[in-house]
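FAQ

Q: What does a record look like?
A: Structure on top, sequence underneath. For example:
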């Protein structure tokens, strides 16, 4: 697959635009949307440059998805969550990016601040810099969605993206934040998503359970090459880690409750 190369917005320009946009209305930002910028450059090699027509098509599709979610109004939280899932699929299917290009921070800065400034600042009003500048792709308004779809897409199934809604944004952030260890293994992330709904949680808090499971898998990764395991074995590894976490956390929570009761007495 030939990668599509996107403009890379230089850091100084990204900072200037973000400072300016923080005090702009959505109507003003709509007028600032563009398909090029004087401070944007392309990689010299590695693929073909994205065309203006492709950028325009991508913008139109994302704007249309945002309108379904209430844009330019505030909209409901559930609608924005559905918007994220729709755009994750859209970006992964239509952008033409490969993982090496999608790891480049300045590409996402261009998309957020040049191509889609109005939708970016609608999705996250007055956002911290990392939401739009690409300083942390795990938090970027668009970068995090492409990676969510990339890590969870099922290559040999008709419904490639059926696992996208297994984890909410905060839960998936926990996984993606560990991308250099666990999050970098697409097979493991998919096994985790397929196994997660079947786990007997025993009353343990979901967020706490996921954090503990990820820690156990991280320790296991020091001695097990997850990419070398087949799908069944990966799911077994996840299920065993989850069972161990539930057993430990379920035992510790009553103890914590008793301590609090004693403190209150």
């Amino acid at each position: 697959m030939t990668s599509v190369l996107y403009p890379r917005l230089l850091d100084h320009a990204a900072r200037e635009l973000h400072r300016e946009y923080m005090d702009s209305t959505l109507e003003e930002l709509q007028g600032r949307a563009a398909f090029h910028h004087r401070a944007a450059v392309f990689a010299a090699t590695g693929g073909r440059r994205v065309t203006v027509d492709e950028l325009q098509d991508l913008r139109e599709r994302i704007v249309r998805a945002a309108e379904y979610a209430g844009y330019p109004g505030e909209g409901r939280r559930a609608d924005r969550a559905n918007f994220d899932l729709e755009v994750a699929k859209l970006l992964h299917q239509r952008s033409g990016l490969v993982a090496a290009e999608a790891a480049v921070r300045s590409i996402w800065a261009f998309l957020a601040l040049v191509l889609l400034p109005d939708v970016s600042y609608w999705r996250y009003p007055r956002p911290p810099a990392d939401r739009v500048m690409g300083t942390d792709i795990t938090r970027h308004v668009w970068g995090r969605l492409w990676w969510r779809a990339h890590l969870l897409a099922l290559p040999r199934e008709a419904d490639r993206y059926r696992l996208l809604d297994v984890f909410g944004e905060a839960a998936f952030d926990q996984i993606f934040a560990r991308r250099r260890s666990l999050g970098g293994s697409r097979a493991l992330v998919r096994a985790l998503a397929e196994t997660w709904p079947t786990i007997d949680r025993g009353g343990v808090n979901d967020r706490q359970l996921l954090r503990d499971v990820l820690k156990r898998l991280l320790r296991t990764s020091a001695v097990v090459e997850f990419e070398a395991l087949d799908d069944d074995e990966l799911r077994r590894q996840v299920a065993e880690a989850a069972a161990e976490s539930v057993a430990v956390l379920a035992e510790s929570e009553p103890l914590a409750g008793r301590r609090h009761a004693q403190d209150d007495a």
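Q: Is there anything notable about this one?
A: Residues 255-265 have pLDDT under 50 and may be disordered.
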